[in-house]
Amino acid sequence: MTHTSLATPVSIVIPTHNRLPILAQVLDALASQDFATESMEVIVVADGCTDGTEDAIRTREYPFRLAIVTQDGSGAAAARNAGAARASGTLLIFLDDDVIPTSTLVGEHVSLHRWTSRAAAVGPYLLPPQDRPTFFGEKLRRWWEDQFEAMGHPEHQFTYRDLLSGNLSIPAAVFAETGGFNTSFPDAGGEDFEFGVRLLEANIRIAYASRARAEHQETMDLARSFRRARVQGAAEVKNARLHPHVRDTLAFHTPSPTRWLIGRAPKVARLLAAAAGGLLVPLEGLGMRRAWHRLSTAVQHYWYWVGVAKELGGHAKLKHVQQSLDDDLPPGAPAAEGGDSASRSVNTGNG
Fold it and tell me: What are the distances in angstroms from CA 70 to CA 67, 95, 98?
């Protein structure tokens, strides 16, 4: 089905950092949409790129208007905001630079927003199947499948954790009204959840655009997932400070032996995590899937708590996380009082 042209274009914002080959595939897929391309503008925000991204895409011709914004490594949140500031469309679609849209993606996002003006819509972006996936590849693929399968359930209760920014549409007016992404999250991870909290607080619902599908050419590997876990730990502390009412939905609210050990014997915890990490390759080589999953999860939790400790101001703060957070509140601010029922698991694949 071909959609009719809109008087005001749809603006597609793509933050990117040194991923030119995959970005080129994303742009080619956008050029093949069944939506009227003359009603589209694509804004690529090159965030500290050193691989020739800007020059390479300037030399190509596309059936849509293409704009390039450059910034000096300020991060994904700032890049999305910069793209939105440049946009002229009434509808913003955010795509990550490794999310390749199907030919119907833009039209499906537009169709959903014709029925509502106060929603942010998340489309599915699943990993493609692999001939010989690693244990980590299997784990990552399952994480993404579980996320979108849950969103598609008729009785799913949406929470801020459903706000995934890799394939997201939102009216430009709503984006501006709610302040966009929080740029105090310089590393990718956490800024989308924080934005989700503010959207729900403003009575902006989160919806699932099940037919706005894309393929996720994820480049995450095991080592990078550990770094991401550390970023997530720090991000959850930031979210707890900004929005005390969601604290009991965050992973650090749950008692943890890892938290206890890092808080009291950080050197021992670091040695144990290093030893566990060193066993992962031989365990996979031996086909010991269950042991690999247990150990990889333990190492991931270790790095999550390292991130929490760093953001709190030291390992000792882990002994009394809630008190440390309450001490951070400005005078007169209420302490945390419960929240929604979001999952408390450490996020393997977001972002």
Answer: 10, 17, 18
DSSP 119-158: EEEEPPEEPPP-SS--HHHHHHHHHHHHHHHHHTSTT---
Q: Which pTM value belongs to this model?
A: 0.89
Q: 104: buried, middle or exposed (CB in 10 Å: 19+, 13-18, 0-12)?
A: middle
Q: What are the structure tokens assigned to 289, written together?
A: 């899937």
Work out whether strand 125-126 and strand 214-216 pair parallel, antiparallel, or are unpaired: parallel
Six token digits for residue 217? 């050419």
For the chain of 351 residues, list the mean pLDDT of each consecutive stretch of 10. Answer: 54 96 97 94 96 94 96 92 96 97 97 91 94 91 96 95 96 96 81 95 96 93 93 91 87 81 93 96 96 96 94 85 66 44 43 46
**Cβ–Cβ < 8 Å for 3, 36:** yes
SS3 92: strand
Sorted by where each starts, the structural domains of the chain and their CATH numbers stand as 10-219 (3.90.550.10), 223-328 (no CATH)
